[in-house]
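pinging the channel bc i need a second pair of eyes. not urgent but kinda urgent?? the chain im working w is below, pasted from the shared doc
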Amino acid sequence: MFNGFIFNHIGVAGYTQSETVFDPVQHIHICFLHKADMPTVELLEPVDDKSPVVETLKKNGVTPYHTCYEVANMAEAAATLKQHKFLPLGKAVEAVAFGGRSVQFFYHKDVGLIEIVEAI
């Protein structure tokens, strides 16, 4: 930001922390911060070099990683994203952090990384 200023942290007040879980597909520990009527904050920690988060950290450092949207129909949402030039980054997989609901990631050069998660 300014010469000599080194980013230290982000303070978030009033949120409740979820249990931390391990996702063996993504090779990460995940923790959510929740607050009624506010966006959920997801904290990700790679556990080894197999995690896709590692490359993001190497390239960009600590940064917002992706935006997630809950969708009623995974196939329809994927088709909509593809129509808008989002590239799928693999198939939909069950996510431990979402109780086994399906998630899938997409990338667009002008938007960045999008995650869709199957609605309850």
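so The beta strands are 16-17, 21-23, 28-34, 41-46, 67-71, 87-88, 93-94, 102-108, 112-118. and The CA atoms of residues 94 and 102 lie 4 Å apart. — does that match what u expected or am i reading it wrong
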